[in-house]
Write a structure and sequence with these properties.
By secondary structure, the protein is an alpha+beta fold. It contains 2 helices and 3 strands, in the order αβββα.
Length: 107
């Protein structure tokens, strides 16, 4: 994936998150992450995509401790003949699933 493709994907993700109500640039904000890894196994490219959300939470343990927790994690792992296309489709699919879960959790 070249820089232009990465930038385009990042802009698309940010736009969809903003439409869902996420605010960017706040102190102590929610942390959203997409991690993309690619390795070659013999003559096959394998792609691993992770989408995660980290948030400040209040534990239910004695003392109600504030902590940072990973509150959402989804992954996709695939063989690929078209790594750029497959990576973009994976990110879009994982993001769609995340936004649906986020909407359901916040209704």
């Amino acid at each position: 994936m070249d820089k232009e493709q990465k930038d385009s994907l990042k802009e698309s993700v940010i736009e969809k998150l903003k439409k869902a109500g996420f605010i960017f640039g706040k102190t102590d904000a929610t942390t959203f992450m997409i991690k993309i890894e690619s390795i070659n196994v013999n003559d096959t490219e394998v792609i691993h995509v992770q989408l995660a959300l980290g948030e400040e939470v209040l534990t239910s343990r004695p003392g109600n401790i504030h902590s940072f927790a990973l509150t959402y994690l989804a992954t996709d792992f695939m063989e690929s003949d078209e790594p750029v296309k497959d990576t973009i489709e994976s990110v879009e699919s994982l993001l769609s699933e995340f936004l649906e879960a986020y909407k359901d959790d916040n209704e």
